Predict the structure.
Amino acid sequence: MSVDLSQFIPSFLEESFEGLELMESGLLNLQPGDNETIHSIFRAAHSIKGGAGTFGFDSVTDFTHLVETLLDEMRDGRREVTNADTEILLESVDCMRLLIEAARDESDYDTEKVAQTSSRLAQTLGNEQLTSDENVSVDKVGSESATGFNIKFVPEHSLAKTGNDPLFLFSALAELGSLTIHANTNELPALMDIDAQELYLSWQLTLIGEVDEEEVKEIFEWVEDECLLELTPIDNKLPQEKTENEPTFQQENTTAPAIDETTPQIQESQIAAANPKSADEKATVSKTKAKTEVGSIRVGVDKVDSLINLVGELVITQSMLSELGNDFVMEKVERLNSGLEQLLQNTKELQESVMRIRMLPISFAFSRFPRLVHDLAVKTGKAMELVIKGEQTELDKTVMEQIGDPLVHLVRNAADHGIEASDIRVAQGKPEKGTISLDAYHQGGNIVIEINDDGAGINRESVLAKAVDKGLIDANATLTDSQVYDLLFEPGFSTAAEITDISGRGVGMDVVKRNIQALGGRIQVESTLGKGSTFKVNLPLTLAILDGQLVKVGSETYIIPLIAIVESLQIDNKLINRVSGDMVLYRLRDDNVPVLPIYQLFDLETECIEIDNALLVVVEADGQKVGLMVDDLLAQQQVVIKSLKDNYQQVAGISGATILGDGSVAMILDIPGMISMALEKAQYAQKFKNGGDSVKAEVCI
Amino acid sequence: MNIQAMAQDIPVEGEHSIEGVDFITSGDQYLTFLLADEQYAVDILCVEEIRSWETPTKIPNAPGYIKGVINMRGVIVPIVDLRLKFGIGEASYLETTVVIVLTYQNDDKSRTIGFVVDAVSDVLNVESVDIKPAPAFGGCVSQQFIDGLINSEQKVVTILNVAHLQQVEQHPMNS
């Protein structure tokens, strides 16, 4: 029976990337003498090698073999775990990732890097061989000199059930040398008694050739537990009992499934694992990202079970309702109502359960940071550590995928600009080691991610000086702290004295802000000079559903995201001020809020153009408050966001559309977009005025 | 009657009628429709469905010929009034006014847009050799939308290029 192996490749890749992450985090926490960690790293590498071999990814197999050899030596205590070794292993993990990605995309990889790393690995191994005790090398030489083996292979009857096919083993053996096979059919029962899934044969094999015993054993590695295997070298005729497995392998077989069991939560697929390490790698990764966008989610069985339960309830409710509808009389209206209520409940729960499937713990986005900070510490020569809190906070998969890069930027910034060199820190009475902390928690319907460092803080004066220098602000302008910090997000803005390859080119912070805004989130900065800075990223939990306030303008219904609304109020005539010509301001306590009539911005017809009849919804975006003038406030409800881009295009001032209860479509307002629209419009009107044409901006008061 | 037995009787090529059922087995099929009293046609394989007119939700600041979006079984579909886009006839919305929803597959992206027309008329069976290029003598329909002309009885039918029809023009913010 031949099986199409290619169908298993995606899960192999997924598992491999998980394995790589496991190796990476293990290596970062590795202490000398910590055998448990070394074992788990070894197991991860070993599974990757095994899988890659099965699927014919030879480059991965060969490279991983070297890594495995080094790990093996550490595991057996033949090698001390040194920092240099850990570095090489970390690099090797990168290379393995490159190789697996290349295998996935059938693309090329950075051969130079891989060759370099593998030669360094070989070198490390070579050094070891010189100093290793003679027993080992003698043993090796002894087995290497064999010119062949007699192999007795008696598999258990259930071998085929575990997915192993002796034919594969034999063809692998045949590649090592010339192979003669004798099948023993003694145990074959009568045709009547044969169970088609059992394996009744055993084999006597003779392999002739310059073969290393290790190589032969490796082929049988996956079936060792389930067979009686005797290897006899041909030349010296010494029968070597191999019925017993090496203890290490036994351990592997018992613990490998345990890894899978301990991670039954949803696991993000390749994308999160394939985190870019350097700029050029990033380019290749982002190229491949598009290809793999249709990632998969691993869902915990409990979540699926709860879904099935809910669907069961839904079916019951449905049948109850349809029975009710068969011969409906007015007396039954009460039962109908309760049935509908039940339906509502079911639908709500079902929706929540489905949403929960998309939720992943944020540790998937955080997992890359220990490595990043470790690398940054090496690169910058500063001592720093990373503290991660709240990594179990759950977040929508899509949001998670898109927040990764902005977070990397922020952490790099904290490491490069925030944390000072150790001597400066000591001189300032701070602990020598800088601390960068990542914290995630829920707040309202949002998730907040804080990136905090105990470094130098943001120097208000130098930011201001730079901004004046760049012509972003007037030299005499007085700005609040938050306005000053907002300058950091201007394109091309950097206060770093020298440009490093980590950060300082001023490219990035504006992208960070844009990305976060694209996700419907916002970023705030808090900083104390000399004490450190905190970047607070506020994100919606999910991109698929939004709490909205329905408003009416003319004949159209619009949805304002609840998160943006500060308050809604009846307009008080006395508080309306007209200033600087055409601008309409509404006095909201101490603030003056500019009024934006939606009908004007969207070019709609409405009878409600008088400002004193209208309602004002005060919204905030980018720290700017504006009052949206609407005809009426309708209900508040959760809406499912549908993209306009699928069949149309992005529309200014609109973030998407949704379908209301009556089947009609309503537009969801994009508050920051509307504000910038209004600004553009005002500038346009002003240009006309300055040009001599006295085109008056139409503001109907 | 047994459909399978019927199917065996159908010759491979040509147009046939068996017991009042039409079978067309050659050439490409086009759906024709009316804009004012002119006949137009689109490839029938692109037609997703034909719906009656319903007032769509407006898209802010969109060009006049984009009437808005509708909900087609959970999918947001923009509605383009072809009469306004081409400047033919009057854009009145009567009971016979219909929306032809077209889906066009381009690479791996597909786009679904509804087009308002005055009426749907017929399905034409056309051999590709019968499609004649349209003479470039003005007319208010831009050449890029036209694949060619075909003669259908006494009338001339303009075959429209669905790929070009589906392209959404960037509408600048009208300040």
